[in-house]
Design brief:
- The chain is mainly beta.
- It has one domain: 6 Propeller (Neuraminidase).
- 6% of the residues lie in helices and 48% in strands.
- It contains two helices and 24 strands.
- Strand 18 and strand 19 form a beta hairpin.
- The protein is globular, with a radius of gyration of 20 Å.
Length: 322
C-alpha cells in the first residue's frame, strides 16, 4: 500500500511539474488614446500605434504586472496571481495594433517545478528578459528574485540585495531593468531610503550597489526598460482610493544609473483621466519590423493590471517613441 502511494505521489508530482501551457481564448476590443477622438494620436513624445482592451473567459486571466517582448514578436506577461501569459499581437497593414491571438497560460513554478499554491509566494510584480535569454522575476510579499530559463520552467532563486526582504509586504520590486552588458536595476514601489527617495539597487560586476529613485507628486514607479541608447525609461502610475488614475513615462539619462546615484529625468509622456488609462504596471520595449511604417523604430508596450476588479480593464497599448 505504501509503495503504491509513493508511486501515485511521484506520478502526480511529475505530471504537475511537466504540465504544458494551456490555450486560452483572448478577446480584444480596440480602444482609442482619447475616447471619442480618434484623431488624437500623440501623447507627449509617444506616437499612438493602437490599443486593446483584453478579456478572456478563463478565470485565471488578469492581474498582469510584468511584460516582455520575445524575439519572435510574441509578448509574455506575468500575473500577480501566479501565472504566465504568452500571446501574439496582431497588426493591420499600417502597423497598428488591432488584435491578440495564440494565447497560452501556465502557472509560475517554484524551484522544484511545482505551481505556487499561495498568493504569498505567487505575487509576481516585475519581469525582465536577461541577455542570456532567461527571465528574471521580482516577487513581493515573500520578497525574492527568481530566474526562469523559459516560461513554464522551474524558478531558481538568485542573489539579491541584502535588505530586499525588509520592503513593505505589498510594496516590493515593481521595476526591473536589464542592460546588454549584464547590469540589473531594481526599484522598490514603497521602501524608502534615508533621504526619502525610493530604494533602488544596481547589480554591476557581480555586486549589488544601493542607489535611489526620486519621487515626484503622487506617481510611483511600476516598471522600467532600457533604451538602445542605454538611457532608462521608467513607467509611473497614479492610482488609489483618493487619487485619479494617471500614468507617465520618465526618461533617466544613463549617466545617472551608477552606484549611489539618484535617478530622475524628464517626462516623455503624461496620461490624465481624459485619456485611456488604468492601473498601468507593465512595460516592454522592442523594434519595429524590417519593413512598414515603423521599420527600425523603437516601440513601447504598456499593460495594465486590472486587479481582477470588474470596474477595471486589462489594457495593452503600443507607442512609437519619437
Amino acid at each position: 500500500m505504501r509503495a503504491r502511494l509513493l508511486v501515485a505521489c511521484f506520478v502526480w508530482f511529475t505530471a504537475a511539474a511537466a504540465a504544458p501551457a494551456e490555450p486560452v481564448r483572448l478577446e480584444a476590443a480596440p480602444v482609442e488614446l482619447v475616447p471619442g477622438r480618434p484623431e488624437v494620436r500623440q501623447v507627449g513624445r509617444l506616437q499612438w500605434r493602437g490599443g486593446l482592451h483584453l478579456k478572456s473567459p478563463d478565470r485565471r486571466f488578469g492581474g498582469y504586472s510584468g511584460l516582455e517582448r520575445l524575439p519572435d514578436g510574441r509578448l509574455v506577461a506575468v500575473s500577480d496571481l501566479g501565472h504566465w501569459l504568452v500571446f501574439r499581437p496582431v497588426f493591420d497593414m499600417d502597423g497598428r495594433l488591432v488584435g491578440a491571438i495564440d494565447g497560452e497560460i501556465e502557472p509560475l513554478k517554484d524551484e522544484a517545478g511545482r505551481p505556487f499554491k499561495r498568493k504569498l509566494q505567487a505575487d509576481a510584480e516585475s519581469l525582465r528578459r536577461e541577455r542570456d535569454g532567461g527571465f528574471l522575476i521580482g516577487f513581493e510579499r515573500d520578497h525574492r528574485l527568481l530566474r526562469y530559463a523559459a516560461p513554464g520552467a522551474p524558478g531558481k532563486r538568485v542573489d539579491a540585495p541584502a535588505d530586499l526582504a525588509s520592503q513593505p509586504g505589498n510594496g516590493g520590486i515593481e521595476s526591473i531593468a536589464a542592460w546588454p552588458d549584464g547590469r540589473i536595476l531594481l526599484i522598490s514601489e514603497l521602501a524608502r531610503s534615508d533621504g526619502g527617495d525610493l530604494k533602488a539597487w544596481l547589480r554591476a560586476r557581480g555586486q549589488w550597489h544601493e542607489l535611489s529613485y526620486v519621487l515626484s507628486g503622487e506617481h510611483q514607479p511600476t516598471d522600467a526598460v532600457v533604451l538602445p541608447s542605454g538611457d532608462l525609461l521608467v513607467l509611473e502610475r497614479r492610482y488609489g482610493l483618493f487619487a485619479s488614475q494617471g500614468a507617465r513615462v520618465i526618461r533617466v539619462p544613463a549617466q545617472r544609473v551608477v552606484p549611489a546615484g539618484r535617478l530622475y529625468g524628464e517626462v516623455l509622456a503624461d496620461w490624465e483621466p481624459s485619456m485611456t488609462v488604468d492601473n498601468m504596471e507593465a512595460m516592454a520595449i522592442g523594434r519595429g519590423p524590417r519593413d512598414g511604417p515603423d521599420a527600425g523604430a523603437v516601440l513601447l508596450w504598456l499593460m495594465s493590471d486590472d486587479n481582477k476588479n470588474p470596474l477595471q480593464r486589462t489594457l495593452l497599448m503600443l507607442f512609437r517613441i519619437e
